[in-house]
Amino acid sequence: xxxxxxxxxxxxxxxxxxxxxxxxxxxxxxxxxxxxxxxxxxxxxxxxxxxxxxxxxxxxxxxxxxxxxxxxxxxxxxxxxxxxxxxxxxxxxxxxxxxxxxxxxxxxxxxxxxxxxxxxxxxxxxxxxxxxxxxxxxxxxxxxxxxxxxxxxxxxxxxxxxxxxxxxxxxxxxxxxxxxxxxxxxxxxxxxxxx
Length: 195
Description:
Elements: H1 2-16, H2 20-46, H3 58-77, H4 93-112, H5 120-143, H6 150-169, H7 185-188
Helix pairs in contact: 1-2, 2-3, 4-6, 5-6
């Protein structure tokens, strides 16, 4: 990292015609900084001591702090790089195809039912109804295969995904309010004509 800075400084002087003495002075300062960082990393490593396997014991905590100092110094030196994000993986084709099917179902459902509940519990009811149908078909495929088929499972899965997308699309429009409630205790004595 520091060597790269020195190279860039020299390249800057070559391109801009600056004073090489300034670059050499900056390079010397960078070298002093590099030496100080390396010394810091080595001293921090040397301070670490053996300890028990308990990660919360005082020596283990100190060792972690010394290691953090050493690691930060090495990252600044460019001798160690920090963690990098994993490369983005392409979305698998079956997922892309499933998403396309769900979006097409959203369009179809929205044409048929252009409005959507503002009450999130009613909206969840719509999603729950589709999930219930999917659950029924999956259970029947497992235990009563003569009552359904893989095509019905697929159809219900697509419809469930579509309603989940519609539910998600309205998250900022829901009005979260408690509904009216009544007591069941008062009526419990009157059920079945007995009091």
